Amino acid sequence: MKRESVARANLRLRRELGRLHGMLDEQHAKPHDTGLAPSCARGCNACCRQIVVAEYAEAEYIVARNPEAIRRALPKLREHAAILRAAPSELADSDHGAREYWRLNLPCALLDERGECSVYADRPIACRTWFVADDPARCASEEPQSVRVLDYGTRHAGPDALLRLVAGARRPIPGGGLPVMWGALPQLLMHVIDGRGPADDGDGVRDRGRIDLKPSA
Ligand code: SF4
User: Fold this and answer.
1) Could you give the CA distance from residue 146 to residue 199 in angstroms, rounded to a whole number?
2) Tens-digit pLDDT profile for residues 97-155
3) What is the dihedral of CA 44, 48, 53, 56, to 10 degrees?
């Protein structure tokens, strides 16, 4: 793909990702089926040391729209990316790995000096669709798997919609499939900052490869 058409595709993808965020936020503003209200709110960081798995487009979106926050986070992002690179590959790849990461007690590199998410409006879908109906103190002290999670139907629908956007914007791999790149957020952000694209195999970034999209339901 020529440089210009890559830039156009990225721009379109960013616009559509912004629209998808808006749709998810609308869905999350509705009452939950259980009648329970989420305890999650802007400014809470109780669970912001979970591993965040995102797609390359989300990292690119965050970097493009939050240059100052990224500049401030850079030393920590480098540090966390190096920890992940040196860790066993299943760290970003399984429930066991997620628990191990949680035990490392690494507050997200994107938290600002007040302890708030510095890219909140543009945070990844994994963060946007994670809601709990529990005391934030439990989110901070217990493993994420043990708190009461509220799903608005978006925990799977959000990533599926993201994949459809990627499908519309990136060139398919000859022979089928799409170049998607899922990875742990610090590594993906460093991948973008270093100027590497989604089809560029970076060391330590997992799951780059082919996927076959099911038609949307
Ligand atoms: S991106 Fe923001 S919401 Fe997500 S873990 Fe990091 S600080 Fe928390």
Assistant:
1) 36
2) 788 888 889 999 999 999 999 999 999 999 999 999 999 999 988 887 789 999 999 99
3) 70
- Rounded to a whole number of angstroms, the distance between the first and last alpha carbons of the chain is 30
Query: 């339901």: which residue's tokens?
Result: 217
Atom of ligand 1 nearest to the CA of 185: 1
User: Going by CA atoms, what residue is nearest to atom 4 of ligand 1?
Assistant: 127
Give nearest CA residue, ligand 1 atom 2.
117
Task: Tell me the C-alpha distance between 101 and 170, whole Å.
Answer: 31
Q: How far apart are CA 190 and CA 7, in angstroms?
A: 19
User: Which amino acids bring their CB within 6 angstroms of ligand 1?
Assistant: 45, 48, 52, 108, 110-111, 117, 119, 123, 127
Q: How is the chain split into domains, by residue range?
A: 2-193
The candidate with the shortest Cα–Cα distance to 159, out of 211, 94, 105, 206, is 211
Query: Does pLDDT of 202 surpass 60?
Result: no
Dist CA 89 CA 53 (whole Å): 13
